[in-house]
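Folded chain entry —
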Amino acid sequence: MSSSAKDKAKTPEGFTSLKTEAPPKNTVGFGALKAAAIQVNKYMKASDALKLSLKINQKGGFDCPGCAWPDPDDERSAIGEYCENGMKAIAEEAQNKTINRDFFVKYSVDELTNFTDFEIGKSGRLAEPMFLPEGATHYQPISWEAAFEKVGSHLNALNNPDEAAFYTSGRTTNEAAFLYQLFVREFGTSNLPDCSNMCHEASGSALTETLGIGKGSVKLDDLYKAEVVMVIGQNPATNHPRMLSALEKCKNNGGKIIAINPLPEAGLIKFTDPQNPIKLLTGGTKLADVFVPITINGDVAFIKAILLKLLEKEEELGNVFDKHFIEEYTSDYNAFVADLKTYNFDECLKASGVSVDIFNQTFDLILNNEKIIVCWAMGLTQHENAVIIFENLLIYFC
């Protein structure tokens, strides 16, 4: 591969196929139904699409590869327990189109680096093993036996099995993942990272240090019953739209939603459930009660400002913090208070970019409610200061 091809294979610095338009004020609805139908009809037979749609995220069916949103324990939609993104992912995974050797004769490695991720995915599935010899400009087909021999010879040449890392995707099917890890452990290592390491390493580290467990402890049913849900660094409608249905249930039960993000997310402004005919006709449900337009990298400052005000109220009223829980199950509370008092509220609020009015609306919801859930996603976990952000969030909210 040439040096220019290697450079192109890295994360692109330029933008591809981006268009700007006025931000929408509503999401999902008829538009989602139309977009999903177009993708499915383009890459699958209608009969196959219908058959698969009845099994997605259903008991006895299969997990959707679109995202990691949990399935309800009991109540599941008979119409379809999936979203527009899920159907798009299924359409790509289930497509019958294959890439044969003629494709690689036509396109050199340099030319392939100009393909977008979308174009690569929609080109089809690999039909046979391909190999790039030293100095070659095109991938070449090899037999399965030759492919296994090459992989095996490289692995066996290692001084120690731990010198190898076996990266995979969190969207891999359970059966394939089981066989893959069995092979890796038989080889002699447990180096099995996947995309969730990149996504959640920071939150896992902070959770382990503060709570002693590397995963969130909230169940889907908790979300329905929460008094306040704080959504921070997360765009549900874009990345995991099924969450919007859970937030709508929370709202219907009297819950309040705080959306914290530099830009407004259309799905948190208003959500139109495509499975609810009345909502389709009436225009959906307003979700976010408070939108906090935080400045980029202002997360820690904003959370510190909240903690400072909570401490102020605790010292004034004496009933804000759960002192019994703190004394029984935590350590270094006095050190936490001493550190917090080194910060200035006005400076923190200014650094966060949040107005006094918006801060007060947010703070009042946090102060006056007990059943509070904090949700986050890649906006925080892949942040430069991710671990620090989570540690500050977890100090109070968890």
Summary: Residues 24-93 form one domain. The radius of gyration is 25 Å. The chain has three domains: 24-93, 99-157, 211-397.
